Amino acid sequence: MNGSRRRFLVRSGWVAGGLTTIGVSGCSLLPALPTFGESTAADAWTWVQLRPDGSVRFLLPRAELGQGISTGLSQVVAEELRLPLAAIDCHYQDTGLMAPCQMTVGSQSMENYLTLTARSAACLRETLRQRAAQRFDIDLRQVGTGPEGGFVLPSGLPIRYQQLLWAGESSVATVPQDDALELLSERRADELSIVGRPAEPVHVRRIVTGTETFSRDVRLPHLHYGAIARPPQLGVKATGWDRTAALAIDGVRAVVALDDQLGVVGTTPMAARRGLGALKVTWATLAPEALANVQQPLDIDHFIDRDALDHSGDSTGTLATGAKNAAQTFSLRYDSPMVAHAALEPRAGVARWTTDDAGRSSCELWTGSQDPWMVRAAAAKALGISPNQVVVHNQRVGGAFGGRVLCQATIEAAWLSKATGVPVKVQWSREEEFRYNYVGPQFSTRIDAGLDESGRLTHWHHQAVGAPVLTSSTFIPPYLHWLANRVPDPGTKRGMRSPYSIKHQRLDFADERVPMPTGPWRGLGAAPNTFAVECAIDELASAARQDPIEFRLHHLDQPRLATCLQRLKQRIGSCGQPVGIAATSYKGVTHLAIAAEVAVVGDRFQVTRLVCVHDCGRVIAPDRVRAQIEGNLIWGIGMALLERFKLENGIAATDNFDGYALARNADVPDLEIELVRSDAAPSGAAEAAFAPAAAAIVNAVHAATGRRYRRLPLKATV
Amino acid sequence: MHLTINGAAYDIPVEWQGEPLLTVLRDLLGMTGTKFGCGKGFCGACTVHLDGTATRSCLLPARTAVGARITTIEGLADGDRLHPVQQAWIEHAVPQCGYCQPGQMMTAASLLNANAQPSASDVTASMSGNLCRCGTYPRIRKAVLRAAELAREAS
User: Fold this and answer.
1) Which of A350, A583, B113, B141 sits 20 to 30 Å CA-CA off B51?
2) pLDDT attached to residue A9
3) Which pLDDT belongs to residue A4?
4) Closest CB from B97, B99, B138 relative to A668
């Protein structure tokens, strides 16, 4: 048994004996980094446990953000154990009970966790089969597949899983099985009873009765409330403070400083807020030139002129050679703004710092994060203790979209709790959420391309500038920027390489570190890059006087994407309405094509139809996949027509929903979605469709009005 | 000062009486089913009923709710029997992250209190004040119409 497995078995209460810990010295110069490492089969053995009542405790190895992974993976566990879905008791991540799991990002949970989860559940099933063989002294092969939740003996006697627990045993520890283990969830579709079928979403009953616990809902005895003094502008630090007036406020327990951060702890939310109001803080102010720099938009032409695009990727052929064959050339510029995650739950965290009689300190945290192990590492750094002394209980997250890799409120609760010795909750306001989280960066793109006499693409030069996504200041501290700046950010590049085969093409890009903290936003670069690519392709198809679907098909050698486009063509038929088309092969593995129709209503555009043909390989949870695609199509409406994050005077000008428009119910038509049946490996559906949806809407505006828009969000009045 | 919430009376200490009803529900009484979304009445996550009518609790000082029958998501079901809106929400598997859904359901239930047979456009109009970031709007519309049907079947 390896160390990590043993440790979690111990903490789960399975093995008698002392806690095994691995010493990790504190104070490292390295920042708390996101959890990139993939889980292993050894980690997975602890995820699925049988309990005496015959139910199964499933420790979900992913964060549930609304993408429905708790449902999909519970379906897999149920299928492997031949149990009804309702018998699977799905628990959210807990760093005290599980080895670190890869952060929940990039729409890769099914890709990376399907087989591990299936094997974990199948190992439990086979462990139980071995126990049955021993108990009844029969050969393993004689323990037959029985009714739901058990086996059948050669005598015909059924035996339920829970009858195989030993007296006093609280759960069954799985014995690892060899690689030949049969995975029931991988059988043919018609042999499956739960996987691949619509299922009631896990925990939906808790949600509709208001009993699901988000991190903002966590309550502890003697809970206190924390409020943090926030700078009035980006890049500004506190230079001095006077606590006297704050401490005089009734219910204020303490004013706490950690480096240049200041927080107030009160017995009620009101006391903390009033204390914060009374706290006198002196802030440095931004020099006018620094202020201008904060708000400077990125301009691709400025970068091209200075020859400042220092990263290249995936180039083929020679542009000049391709351009010689061009009968027409095009130089098209696209711009997309900074964007906010705007999840409906503003982030929150609860911390309980304790010191035992032996003087040993530990901290328990409740968070809502895409990466509770990063929260643990960041909290440990702020607290000056080892990550082993911190336990993080992850909760269902009220929307993430890349914005919850770090849940800063939890770290703030941690140092406030340590300083005061009481449990503390920090809950961000909507204004804090808009002003002090990272945003999706602005992108500025120029695409130079050509068409030959026959309307084929001769060359394609995609040049773009964005701000760092993964190597951003959100994750990398200033003293490491010199290093991070040399790394081409894979997040910026995502989606830049189009699915079209063009003999001569070149990609050049830059990640410009901007004063506004940037970071992952749904799909990373795939959103702005796919918007630019798919709108440019549409313009070129028009110039070639070709049908936009046919034009794409002529340039494709990706058969799955071609199938999506052909099916889309059949679906939209000849309705006579002007449509906009877009398509993508997201990360090269999820293929889809979208058609949009748009009407001009007064001074705005109304999307009247959205059709999506989507191939994300084998589908485990079809209704949750559909829900994700629905969400993506609606995000496409927001991206094309509504969303723009603005800075003014060095701080977010859009700090609540009156300034940052999200799509509303009336903005959304009924959605038409077709899932392509496929035996290919499952791939992501959580962020594939929304950028092409936005592009299809922009292209539909052209189809309806004859006007080309190249800057998002587009406004009918411009 | 007392508030009547989901049929029970709660004594509200003086320092909480001027706070928004939402703060009293969540931070004093521990009824966390009603959600904080924006604090300014823009998003609808905090929707509760006052005498059966949808009201945003984030802007409403608690003392102004004295004497009203307050219903929160925790009190929408009739004991173990789910409200037709809750049943329809499960049938259509509406929630994704689920955070805005208590507010959406309270708005929907209020609509059905006022209009037992809403048209599709009544539903869209009534539900357009509640924001959802995940993108559950088309399912919400279907679920509200289904809830109206379930309520009629039950009566």
Assistant:
1) B141
2) 40
3) 47
4) B138
Q: Which of B47, B83, B89, B133 to mutate to test the interface with A (most CBs of A within 10 A)?
A: B133
CA dihedral A121, A126, A131, A134 (to 10 degrees): 180
Query: For position A29, what pLDDT does the model report?
Result: 59
For residues A496 and A525, the answer to whether their CB atoms sit within 8 Å is: yes
Is the Cβ–Cβ distance between A517 and A472 less than 8 Å?
A: yes
Q: Does B39 touch chain A (CB under 8 A)?
A: yes
Question: Measured on CA atoms in the order A513, A518, A519, A522, is the torsion positive or negative?
Answer: negative
Give A575-611 as a 3 state SS string.
CCCCCEEEEEEECCCEEEEEEEEEEEECCEEEEEEEE
Instruction: Convert the pLDDT of each residue in A628-679 to its tens digit.
Output: 999 999 999 999 999 999 998 889 999 999 999 999 999 999 999 999 999 9
- Range from A1-10, A265-274, A645-654, B18-27 carrying the lowest mean pLDDT: A1-10
Q: What is the average per-residue pLDDT within A456-476?
A: 92
C-alpha to C-alpha distance for A134 and A222, rounded to whole angstroms: 51
Helix (H, G, I), strand (E, B) or coil at A646: coil
Separation in Å, CA A464 to CA A138, A519, A533, A629: 67, 17, 11, 27
Higher local confidence (pLDDT), A1 or A535? A535
Computed from CA positions of residues A22, A28, A33, A36, in that sequence, does the dihedral angle turn out positive or negative? Answer: negative
Q: Max alpha carbon distance in chain B (Å)?
A: 46
Q: Residue for token digits 């209190």?
A: B113
What pairing do the DSSP bridges indicate for beta strands A88-91 and A56-59? parallel
A632 and B135 in contact by Cβ < 8 A?
A: yes
Q: Report helix, strand or coil for A586.
A: strand
Name chain B contacts of A607, Cβ cutoff 8 Å. Answer: none
> So what's the ipTM on this one?
0.98
Q: What letters, b where the CB count within 10 A reaches 16 and e where it falls short, cover A174-206?
A: bebbeeeeeebbbeeeeebebbbbebebbbbee
Min Cα distance A121 → chain B (Å) is 25
Closest alpha carbon to A467 in A485, A447, A455 = A485
The Cα A478–Cα A472 span in angstroms is 10
Give the nearest partner residue to A219 out of B30, B102, B130, using CB atoms: B30
CB A434 within 8 A of CB A654: yes
Give the side-chain half-sphere CA count within 13 A for A352.
12
Task: Write down the residue that tokens 């519309």 correspond to.
Answer: B141
Q: Check: CB of residue B31 under 8 Å from CB of residue B73.
A: no
DSSP strand pairing (A651-652 vs A647-648): antiparallel
Are the Cβ atoms of B19 and A213 closer than 8 angstroms? no
- Beta bridge partners, A598, equal A607
- Give the tokens for residue A710: 């190249």
Provide the total of helices (H) and of strands (E) in chain A, helices listed first. 20, 26
Q: Residue A458 in contact with residue A313, Cβ under 8 Å?
A: no
Please give the radius of gyration of chain B, using alpha carbons only, rounded to the nearest integer: 15
For residue A667, CA distances in Å to A338, A601, A607, B138 come to 22, 11, 7, 10
Using CB atoms, which residue from B30, B93, B138 is nearest to A623?
B93
Q: Would you state the pLDDT for residue A11? A: 41
Q: How far apart are CA B36 and CA A214, in angstroms?
A: 11
- Residue A646 is which amino acid? K
- pLDDT tier at A28, thresholds 50, 70, 90: low
Containing H/E element for B49?
strand B47-50
